[in-house]
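Hi F.,

I've been meaning to write this up properly since the lab meeting, where we talked about keeping a consistent format for the predictions we share between groups. The idea is simple: the sequence comes first, exactly as it goes in, then the structure tokens exactly as they come out, then a line or two of notes. No screenshots and no reformatting. I'm using this chain as the first example so we have something concrete to point to.
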Amino acid sequence: MGKFAINTDKGGKFRFNLKATNGQVILSSQGYATKASCDNGIESVRKNSQSDERFDRKTGKNGSTYFNLMATNGQVIGTSQMYSSPAAMENGIASVKTNAPDASVEEGE
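Output, unedited:
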């Protein structure tokens, strides 16, 4: 089962990473000013990850693909790593859909 790992960055903001069962980061958040806001971001990932239309598929300048998970208000909730191909990116999206709903939450990971 996947997990959300919450950390504090150098600027004091809270961030989470959604990690797959193998420990690989599959989605990273923005910085949040408070832990409560970060927790709300995690709940938004759980909810929005189940709707395919919430995944905004992108291509980087170097040709690599990635995706953003969007909230209903159009705000980016999380961003993926860069993938070598569209097929690899789709596997990443499938992993978020599978892992996010039941992922545990751990701090300081």
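Notes:
The chain has a mean pLDDT of 95.
The longest strand covers residues 3-8.

If this format works for you, I'll send the rest the same way.

G.
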